[in-house]
Design goal:
Order of helices and strands: HEEEHEEEEHEEHHEHEEEEHEH
Radius of gyration: 22 Å
Number of helices: 8
CATH topology of the largest domain: Trna Endonuclease, Chain: A, domain 1
CATH architecture of the largest domain: 3-Layer(aba) Sandwich
Helix content: 25-40%
CATH class of the largest domain: Alpha Beta
Strand content: 25-35%
Number of strands: 15
Distance between the termini: 52 Å
Structural class: alpha+beta
Length: 255
């Protein structure tokens, strides 16, 4: 029987088979994510048997923690309520993408999914290659003139899986790049986070500095995270010290 622990083990095995480095915090209840994975851009990963188990507060925390680490958040789950999450599809809950383990393994092999998954079914974002042929096929399906015009006159458009199969010869599916690098904020950003080994981070032009409060409970995990991301851990006594740290320590590391 599938459990969260067995799913976590499948994820670890997939990473080990591909020699992909990762850091495991799944046994640290104070940390909102389970794994951080070293790819071109890090992935902050949470593993759940059922995506319905994700609460809004945890989803929002996961997004903020990932952003503070210049990483992308991703959830691996196998079910939505009693329904199996389809292969090769990407869903979204509280602003965080989720996929199943099989799709995750393909993602690690640079095979990106092409279906968007929601309770309404599967959708595909397509690029129209032959608008005239698309019009003819859509008319034969009995779609309204307005919907036919909307689809056929668009360069890119989202359609249901049924319509995608009708148009398969005259469209190109646009795959979903879940590993796309961030374009960067362009300025210096300070993040304050909860339920992560670090308390604060400073990001400037994709260069990262992690900060943690002195004598914190997660000091070991904080050092592990900084080492994994190849950044120096900076300890502070309180948040009031941030400006002083930025002035004396961070500037020399970021510039």
């Amino acid at each position: 029987m599938l459990t969260r622990s067995s799913l976590l083990e499948k994820v670890r095995r997939a990473l080990q088979q591909r020699n992909i480095d990762y850091l495991d915090f799944s046994l640290v209840p104070e940390v909102v994510f389970d794994l951080i994975i070293k790819l071109e851009r890090p992935l902050v990963l949470k593993v759940l048997k059922n995506i319905e188990c994700l609460k809004r507060s945890s989803g929002e925390l996961l997004k903020k923690v990932a952003e503070s680490l210049d990483a992308r958040p991703l959830i691996i789950a196998e079910y939505e309520k009693q329904k199996k999450i389809p292969d090769n599809s990407v869903g979204c809950r509280f602003g965080v993408h989720f996929i199943n383990c099989k799709t995750f393994e393909k993602l690690l092999d640079n095979e990106y999914p092409c279906y968007y998954y929601s309770r309404g079914g599967l959708y595909v974002r397509v690029r129209i290659l032959n608008s005239q042929q698309a019009r003819e096929k859509l008319r034969s399906e009995g779609l309204s003139r307005k919907r036919v015009a909307e689809i056929a006159s668009s360069c890119e458009v989202s359609v249901t899986l049924r319509i995608f199969k009708v148009l398969e010869d005259c469209v190109e599916p646009i795959r979903i790049n879940l590993l796309e690098k961030n374009s960067g904020s362009g300025g210096q950003v300070v993040y304050r986070v909860e339920r992560s080994p670090h308390d604060l981070s400073v990001l400037e032009e994709s260069k990262l500095v992690l900060l943690g409060k002195c004598r914190q409970r997660l000091e070991k995990e904080f050092r592990q995270l900084a080492d994994f991301l190849n950044v120096e851990p900076v300890f502070i006594d309180s948040e009031q010290d941030i400006s002083e740290v930025l002035r004396r320590r961070l500037r020399s590391q970021i510039l």
